[in-house]
Amino acid sequence: MNRTNGGGGANLYALRGYNAALMLDLLRSAGRAGISRLELAERTGLTPQAVSKITARLRDDGLVAEAGRQASTGGKPRTSLRLVPEAGHAVGLHLERDELRAVLVDLTGAVVGERRGPLDLGAGSEAVVEVAAREVEGLVGGVDGELGAVLGVGVAMPGPLDHTHGVLHRVTGFPEWDGFPLRDALARRLGMPVVLDKDTNAAALGLAVEGEVGSFAYLHLGTGLGAGLVLGGAVHRGAHTGAGEFGHQVIQLDGPVCSCGDRGCIEVLCLGAVARGDVDEAARVLGAGAANLVGLLDIDLVLLGGRIVAAEPERFVRGVGAVLDARAQREGASSPVPVRVASGGEWGVAEGAAQLLLAPLFGRAED
Amino acid sequence: MNRTNGGGGANLYALRGYNAALMLDLLRSAGRAGISRLELAERTGLTPQAVSKITARLRDDGLVAEAGRQASTGGKPRTSLRLVPEAGHAVGLHLERDELRAVLVDLTGAVVGERRGPLDLGAGSEAVVEVAAREVEGLVGGVDGELGAVLGVGVAMPGPLDHTHGVLHRVTGFPEWDGFPLRDALARRLGMPVVLDKDTNAAALGLAVEGEVGSFAYLHLGTGLGAGLVLGGAVHRGAHTGAGEFGHQVIQLDGPVCSCGDRGCIEVLCLGAVARGDVDEAARVLGAGAANLVGLLDIDLVLLGGRIVAAEPERFVRGVGAVLDARAQREGASSPVPVRVASGGEWGVAEGAAQLLLAPLFGRAED
DNA sequence: GCCCTTTAGCAACAGCGTTGCTTAAGTGGG
DNA sequence: CCCACTTAAGCAACGCTGTTGCTAAAGGGC
């Protein structure tokens, strides 16, 4: 229980919600196998009786169900509890320059429906909102049978934008999008809550929920180079959703001119090397930036993703890893920061976008 | 009310402590003038009656007192409440290679006693602990009259160390300190709680408490170059207290060799320029690193400190500011990130160290 | 089959912030 | 000057939280 919610005081209602979210989060990580009431009590520090009461409420709400019994340890066996996946759903929308991906996920984050189609950001905001809305409606309507409440739509896009207000700042190449309130426009059109975030943040959130613990950086190497930062389990967006601008970090003073106007940005160096076919150099440059990040933030893990990484994953992991290993050796650290390819692949951003709506249920704060 | 305390559940006792800390924090920021119960209620979202109950408990504990009345706005005038400064004290200890500074501060953070003396880290751990302990005892004993409970001692030192366990990793130039459990040794010797942290973190904490809001970076340019990061009001230390290693960020790939063994670190470039007498170049290099930091973390403010900055404050502020201004212009941001010289001066680290013990009282989480 | 161990729930309870109302302490109009 | 009005602060009762004490349920081992 800490102060991050804008300095607000807490009453009994807040307390209840907090503990309920805590339980749900533990139940989610436990997965299909479930977790017993007593283990929930141990993990939270609450009394078993409190856990019984809280889980009873969650069962009444249909969010939690019993899932068999565990082996006895000499007495009455523990009853496992698990999340009810179909108790709630969320849509994740990944909008790119020329393509749209949409997923419908259940409460556990499992994908129960997906769609993919062309998109033209140049067609104007109204047309794009309409296309996106139709995809969402198709996805939600296309699933047969009873569908637990759809909590809303998470939208992930590249480029600078404002998560708090759901407004786009700029969409590279399409000045007509400047300042467009995408969140509210889509919410009004669909009649359900919408949350907007950067693609890299959505991907990082998805990875955090999937089980990556502690603090890590997700580096995305695609048409641009960006990062999603997870610090202490929460996505770090900064005051204006600007955090994670990894690509325009300068690592070569007075180096070649970058598209942003500065010189020696990691993006121009890295993508330049890729263009020359020198993947090892690209990985080395990326590694230097990653090492800067690791030192600055003391993170535990670096995850790589994006089209360019996907083309040669091992070489990038090896190249970035080499730089981090060298750094660890210089520092005398016991073990270097590991580097891996992010799971999720092409759908990772859309799945993470859906988590923008699920996360609050599990006590993952908005910031 | 958020989840940062290791996943623990919250009971009524935790709720009470949380709201009490919230009140104390608001009372502290209100300073000598105080703040009315109703304003506390507005700021926290709690009902006026709840505020009355909570502040009544705090008054019973002697932490809060009435401080006059405000002007009437047509009815009964509001009663101002303020912290009782002498209700608690803490010691801040700043240990450098060759010098020791110690301050005794009251609950509001005001300095009520200070000491300064030579120190030789090469004299060995036992001797240093003894010298430090004597300074603390002298400081605590030297204040006449009733002294509210001394909560403990905050110790700030350079170099890599582990805040969580209170253990030094390395002290540059003194290998015999490797792994020394300074926190526990000093705590045993003094019989009071001790908290250990990096000097830059202590300075940043002190600045955060002094009223710098939101997220900022404190860049310290002294014998080395380090940073203290405050994100969302809390010091970001990272998993192993390693965060803030700003100086060994590479900004000149394959540049000159640094003392750390890498090439093109900001520290070797910046201090090299200072050595050549080229302050403007040093400021430009520092600015490039600051711009990287601003982009990566989306912070609101950059504060400069340390001996070298103190020698030519305006030129550093101007030089770093110019780089950040150029960056803001490229980004099309409405206003550039401001740069200032950190208040606190030579005693800033020691004062911040004392806040390591006061901060928990005011709900400023340990991490 | 009995005893023991362990789990889960029922009932009473202390303590939290909230609600409804009363008292305190000012201002300002007639 | 006094009285009506406004605003602040506290008292009492209340609903709800997690906790405590105890009981019932359910399995294993001798």
TrEMBL record, chains A, B:
InterPro entries the UniProt entry points to: ATPase_NBD, ROK, ROK_cs, WH-like_DNA-bd_sf, WH_DNA-bd_sf
Signal peptide residues on this chain, from the entry's feature table: none
SUPFAM superfamilies: Actin-like ATPase domain, Winged helix' DNA-binding domain
PROSITE patterns the UniProt entry points to: ROK (PS01125)
Gene3D superfamilies according to UniProt: 3.30.420.40, Winged helix-like DNA-binding domain superfamily/Winged helix DNA-binding domain (1.10.10.10)
PANTHER family: GLUCOKINASE, ROK (REPRESSOR, ORF, KINASE) FAMILY
Record-stated family: Belongs to the ROK (NagC/XylR) family.
Name of the protein in its database record: Transcriptional regulator
Protein's organism: Streptomyces flaveus
